[in-house]
TrEMBL record:
Pathway membership, UniProt: Lipid metabolism; butanoate metabolism
Species annotation: Saccharopolyspora hirsuta
Protein name, per record: 3-hydroxyacyl-CoA dehydrogenase
Pfam families per the UniProt record, alphabetical: 3HCDH, 3HCDH_N
Keyword hit for Secreted: no
Domain 3-hydroxyacyl-CoA dehydrogenase NAD binding stretches: 10-187
């Protein structure tokens, strides 16, 4: 804790969106904050805005008036990023351009005290590439904050290839002193959070590309079934495709075209067309006066003309409770609609392999919740039976999303991609399992950490979804990570590292 406790002054360079947030929390935590920017007006407006933020916090009772006044006193505008300084730490948050950041640090090295630690808030450049601009690259690390900084209480601490061993530990302590949660990440494309976030986005785009479900179908399922605060298409509209698409491309190319991270031509085309999202008034959704326009859900047919047979006794109980006529025999009668509830396989494959009448069979995603269930309809399904299945499910009072049959339907596919992506991160030791779960919960707002989530659903089930997709599509993007395969096979917890050779040797 020593260094972090002793830090008394920090210079924040680049007082845009991120720099002012960083300056705010540093001043509130008791550090003297020098604010510098290439544009003098950016510093003035940052000081004003931070002052207003402190006033707001006083209004909300989160700070006393005295604390706010003291924090405001600690803000020290300086007229140049290279003005003389006695600071202990520099946090750089200038525009995302490698040459700009390298030039800046090379100059800072000449004027800062030798003891000062350098940190970059880059989100997509390599920390190591920035550090090599220094005569002493060991004094620089990544300190990756999230937007808006005061509310997003996670910070990735990222050593470069030559960063001094003590610096990541010291920055972890400093982040805690700022009241945020530190996680340790590695200097790899997308670091931890942006890499982990690829699972949701790329799989949602793949589901859309295959015509399995529409954008609102996917968003509704993600909200009501997976419990995400926002569906992937709403999220892309909020962030803007000008940010999301290049991030996808840079992480994918950074991993030399790894198919599991492959971006989608859908977002490239929409980006070129200027359909960026909320900021342009049109993205995956249209926005009128800032309000998202969403098509109403299709109305389910009313009559349930046929009895329902299912391989799931739980589903039959729910249907019977809603007054639907159910069959509980070992096999469906010739009249019955057949509802299969597979993990992994498509409804058609599940029906065929259980010797059930395929033309009368639809799938119901076992991941459905009381709010919403997913009905999956394959191309050889008799339309009358599919309509009866829809009406029967709707009679339970749940919203029903009808999708094109696919291994894993929608929720299972997306969850499997989220879990598998994080399993790759764990497998490659890019972060610890605990940090992966913490980072994703805080920064992406998922209801659970992905490893914990996969464990809850069951590693074997997650694996079965990936294997079914891999075999149905032949697409290497579904290859399961060894972390997942090994833990599913050995019955180990996805959140635990398990015994390592080092454990045996010590
Ligand atoms: N916005 C985000 O969501 C976000 C999240 C995490 C990390 N980041 C990273 O943080 C950094 C800053 O992003 P931002 O969104 O705050 O950008 P921004 O455009 O809001 O602010 C950048 C500021 O840097 C100043 N600047 C540019 N070149 C400079 C130089 N050579 N010297 C001094 N000041 C200079 C600009 O005048 C501007 O005020 C980038 O590296 C970005 O990738 C951004």
């Amino acid at each position: 804790m020593q260094w972090a406790e002793q830090v008394s002054a920090v210079r924040v360079i680049g007082t845009g969106v991120m720099g002012r947030g960083i300056a705010q929390i540093a001043a509130a935590a008791g550090l003297a904050v020098e604010l510098a920017d290439a544009r003098a007006e950016a510093v003035t407006s940052a000081v004003d805005q931070i002052g207003r933020m402190f006033d707001k916090l006083v209004g909300k009772g989160r700070m006393t008036a005295e604390q706010a006044a003291a924090a405001r006193e600690r803000l020290r505008p300086v007229d140049s990023p290279l003005a003389p300084t006695e600071c202990d730490l520099v946090v750089e948050a200038v525009r995302e351009d490698l040459a700009t950041k390298r030039e800046l640090f090379a100059e800072l090295e000449k004027i800062c005290p030798a003891r000062a630690v350098f940190a970059t808030n880059t989100s997509s450049l390599q920390v190591t590439s920035i550090a090599t601009a220094l005569d002493d690259p060991s004094r620089l690390a990544g300190l990756h904050f999230f937007n808006p900084v005061p509310l997003m209480r996670l910070v990735e601490v990222i050593p470069g290839a030559r960063t001094a061993a003590w610096i990541p530990d010291a920055l972890v302590d400093l982040v805690r002193r700022l009241g945020h949660t530190p996680v340790r990440a590695t200097d790899t494309p997308g670091f931890l959070v942006n890499h982990a976030g690829r699972g949701l986005i790329t799989e949602a785009l793949q589901v859309l590309a295959e015509g399995v479900a529409t954008t609102s179908d996917v968003d509704r399922i993600c909200r009501d079934v997976l419990g995400l605060r926002m569906g992937p298409f709403e999220l892309m509209d909020l962030t803007g495709l000008d940010v999301t698409h290049p991030a996808m491309e840079s992480i994918w190319t950074g991993y030399y075209g790894d198919p599991r991270l492959r971006p989608s031509p859908i977002t490239r085309t929409r980006l070129e067309a200027g359909l960026l999202g909320r900021k342009t008034g049109e993205g995956f959704y249209a926005y009128v006066d800032g309000v998202k326009q969403e098509e109403p859900e299709p109305q389910a047919p009313e009559a349930v003309a046929r009895p329902v047979w299912s391989d799931s006794a739980d589903l039959l109980d729910v249907l019977a409770g809603a007054g639907v006529q159910v069959e509980r025999g070992p096999e469906p009668s010739a009249e019955a609609v057949v509802l299969v509830t597979p993990y992994g396989h498509s409804a058609a494959t599940a029906a065929r392999s259980a010797d059930l009448p395929v033309a009368r069979a639809c799938g119901v995603d076992p991941l459905s919740t009381e709010a919403r269930c997913t009905l999956s309809v394959h191309p050889a399904c008799d339309a009358e039976f599919a309509r009866s299945a829809w009406a029967a499910l709707a009679a339970t009072g749940r919203a029903v999303t009808v999708v094109r049959d696919s291994p894993g339907m929608v929720a299972q596919r997306i969850l499997a991609a989220i879990v598998n992506t994080s399993c790759f991160i764990a497998e490659q030791r890019l972060a610890s399992p605990a940090d992966i779960d913490t980072a994703v919960r805080i920064a992406l707002g998922y209801p659970r950490g992905p490893l914990e989530w996969g464990q809850q659903v069951g590693p074997r089930r997650v694996l079965s979804v990936l294997r079914a997709l891999q075999s149905a599509t032949g697409d290497p993007r579904y290859r399961p990570s060894r972390w997942l395969v090994e833990r599913a096979e050995l019955g180990l917890d996805l959140t635990e590292t398990g015994t390592t050779p080092q454990d045996l040797l010590t």
